């Protein structure tokens, strides 16, 4: 089971921006990619739990400031290293409103990947 | 010219492996230096580091880190920030530099050994970066305390400590000689990069950087963060190494190397981090107790990793968990009692409020340790300071080189007998603080038997005269360098 949550508007998140929002125990990274594409992933790096919202977004690739791990935010796949991926939340855009769907099992959702 | 992406050329540039035609395998990779002979050479080709980096990117990243960190140091150096730091925190920093700066430099030997004798080109490549990392860490952690000399003359113990026979140095040097200075490439990967760095220091450095910022020590916080980013990259050598070993049927040997070093890493952590977190860091800045830190980070996260690789908990796991409640408290008491023998100012950390915190975090602390501090407090209050100094030396363990504190273990309900454990090897009696320390020694006695603990040196006449004054001189401490109570006993008078 999942619930939809309004978390931001496109006014808060311009193209090329990332932001961190919290829904219950989940810390969520929002990214507005070129072409009005909004994605939502786990907000902490799967490597050492740094906040990904402090990372640098270049095109579709986000580089975490912790240890320079890179993620493709179009797909959530790790670029370097390539053996891990970010947990992804479904996103719905209604006009300017951004909503994300978060499972209602009461647990935070994220992948871990050590290195 | 079109620019290829890294993945298009990386493997080709990295994988400088070839078949030997003019020399023997054993001449190129002697077992005592490489340690990889259990696994056939071709099986090592599966070695792959998860996070990739080219030399060009490496240099770019390192220059950026150095520029940021050194600029911050220059700015902070002109301020009064260091003067305003809590005295206990200054002790954290001064203890850290003395115990860690030179070992970081020495770790470059271990990395360089993997860079030459690691059995896969990918491994040697990663280790070459690791070598450069550790040279940088040795230099930066010697240079930063050098900048503090005007304010804290014992900043020079960053360089000096390892050139003395101070008892803390003996313990730390014995550990790191075992772990990387005198260790083969395979064991360095598993014991330094997997067990110590992945298991303990990566996690500790994150917490320490956050604590430094919290107490207002921007310089140390920035330094530690800059180091930690390197550690996380070269620490990844452990994972592929242990994977190759296990995939080729040598789980038991990997388990032995982990069990050996996990215990030793725990001992060093209890000494350095245990005291820092639970006694030296100002109460307001403590986010968690040392026990909570070990439970949340080391036990939970690192233990998950054991199991991911099919390894088991070390055989002494119950004893390790049990020690979280008492071992570092006992060591803290010893370090404070012998405060002139260390190069930092020991912070008793037992003001009424701090004692309340300790009892809350470690139920039973008052019963096992508080009683001892009651006596010390009374002696300080009545001006009887001489009574707070011991007249003899504790007996050091012949493996970890730390004082044998089993008597405190009896008070804490962990042991029934305070006597040291014994083992006779070639007619010489060796004494140990714990079963795991004895086990590590007896599995490979030839590795450790020739070493003399500080107690042995006293008994065999290396230290003259054999009294406290002679011992302090032997340890390289001039009177001006003797540690004193960090708070000038304010804690005993209920102030803090």
Automatic annotation (TrEMBL), chain A:
Top-level taxon of the source organism: Bacteria
Family: Belongs to the bacterial ring-hydroxylating dioxygenase ferredoxin component family.
Domain Rieske: 5-100
Keyword Metal-binding in record: yes
Protein name (Swiss-Prot/TrEMBL): (2Fe-2S)-binding protein
Highest classification ranks of the organism: Bacteria, Bacillati, Actinomycetota, Actinomycetes, Frankiales
Keywords: 2Fe-2S, Iron, Iron-sulfur, Metal-binding
InterPro entries in the record: Rieske_2Fe-2S, Rieske_2Fe-2S_sf
Coiled-coil positions: none
The protein's required cofactors: [2Fe-2S] cluster
UniProt keyword annotation of Metal-binding present: yes
Automatic annotation (TrEMBL), chain B:
Gene Ontology MF terms in the entry: monooxygenase activity
Pfam families linked: Phenol_Hydrox
UniProt-listed SUPFAM superfamilies: Ferritin-like
Known catalytic reactions: propane + NADH + O2 + H(+) = propan-2-ol + NAD(+) + H2O
Keywords attached to this entry: Monooxygenase, Oxidoreductase
Keyword tRNA processing set for record: no
Keyword Glycoprotein: no
Database matches in InterPro entries: Ferritin-like_SF, Phenol_Hydrox, RNR-like
Protein name as it appears in the record: propane 2-monooxygenase
Species: Protofrankia coriariae
């Amino acid at each position: 089971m999942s619930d939809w949550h309004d978390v931001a508007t496109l006014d808060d998140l311009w193209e090329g921006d990332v932001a961190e929002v919290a829904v219950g125990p989940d810390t969520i990274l929002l990214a507005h990619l070129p072409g009005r594409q909004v994605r939502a992933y786990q907000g902490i790096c799967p490597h050492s739990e740094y906040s990904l919202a402090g990372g640098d977004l270049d095109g579709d690739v986000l580089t975490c400031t912790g240890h320079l791990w890179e993620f493709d935010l179009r797909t959530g796949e790790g670029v370097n290293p390539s053996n891990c991926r970010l947990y992804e939340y479904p996103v719905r855009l209604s006009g300017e409103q951004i909503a994300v769907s978060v499972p209602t099992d009461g647990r935070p959702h994220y992948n871990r990947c050590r290195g | 010219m079109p620019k290829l992406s890294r993945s298009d050329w990386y493997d080709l540039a990295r994988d400088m492996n070839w078949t030997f035609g003019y020399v023997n395998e054993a001449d190129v990779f002697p077992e005592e230096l490489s340690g990889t002979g259990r696994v056939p050479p071709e099986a090592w080709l599966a070695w792959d580091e998860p996070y990739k980096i080219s030399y060009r990117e490496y240099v770019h990243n390192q220059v950026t880190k150095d520029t940021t960190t050194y600029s911050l140091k220059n700015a902070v150096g002109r301020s009064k920030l260091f003067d305003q730091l809590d005295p206990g925190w200054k002790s954290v920093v001064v203890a850290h530099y003395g115990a860690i700066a030179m070992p970081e430099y020495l770790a470059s030997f271990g990395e360089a050994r993997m860079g030459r004798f690691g059995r896969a080109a990918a491994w040697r490549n990663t280790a070459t970066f690791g070598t450069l990392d550790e040279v940088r860490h040795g230099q930066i952690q010697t240079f930063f305390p050098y900048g503090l000399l005007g304010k804290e003359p014992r900043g020079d113990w960053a360089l000096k400590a390892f050139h003395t026979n101070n008892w803390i140095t003996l313990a730390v040097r014995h550990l790191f000689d075992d772990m990387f200075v005198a260790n083969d490439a395979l064991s360095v990967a598993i014991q330094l990069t997997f067990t110590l760095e992945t298991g303990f220091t990566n996690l500790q450095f994150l917490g320490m950087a956050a604590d430094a910022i919290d107490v207002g020590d921007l310089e140390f916080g920035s330094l530690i963060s800059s180091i930690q980013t390197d550690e996380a990259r070269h620490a990844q050598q452990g994972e592929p190494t242990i994977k190759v070993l296990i995939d080729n049927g040598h789980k038991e040997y990997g388990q032995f190397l982990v069990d050996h070093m996990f215990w030793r890493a725990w001992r060093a952590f209890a000494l350095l981090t245990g005291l820092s977190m639970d006694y030296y860091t100002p109460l307001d800045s403590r986010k968690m107790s040392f026990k909570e830190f070990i439970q949340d980070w080391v036990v939970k996260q690192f233990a998950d990793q054991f199991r991911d690789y099919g390894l088991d908990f070390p055989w002494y796991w119950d004893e390790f968990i049990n020690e979280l409640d008492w071992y570092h408290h006992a060591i803290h008491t010893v370090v404070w009692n012998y405060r002139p023998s260390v190069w930092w100012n020991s912070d008793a950390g037992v003001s009424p409020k701090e004692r309340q915190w300790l009892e809350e975090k470690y139920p039973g602390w008052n019963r096992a340790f508080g009683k001892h501090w009651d006596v010390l407090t009374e002696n300080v209050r009545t001006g009887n300071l001489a009574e707070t100094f011991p007249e003899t030396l504790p007996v050091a363990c012949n493996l970890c080189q730390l004082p044998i504190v089993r008597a405190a273990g009896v008070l804490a309900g962990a042991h029934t007998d305070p006597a040291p454990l014994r083992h006779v090897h070639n007619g010489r009696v060796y004494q140990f603080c714990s079963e795991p320390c004895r086990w590590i020694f007896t599995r490979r006695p030839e590795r450790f038997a020739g070493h003399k603990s500080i107690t042995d040196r006293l008994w065999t006449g290396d230290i003259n005269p054999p009294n406290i004054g002679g011992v302090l001189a032997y340890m390289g401490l001039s009177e001006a360098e003797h540690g004193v109570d960090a708070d000038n006993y304010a804690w005993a008078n209920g102030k803090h």
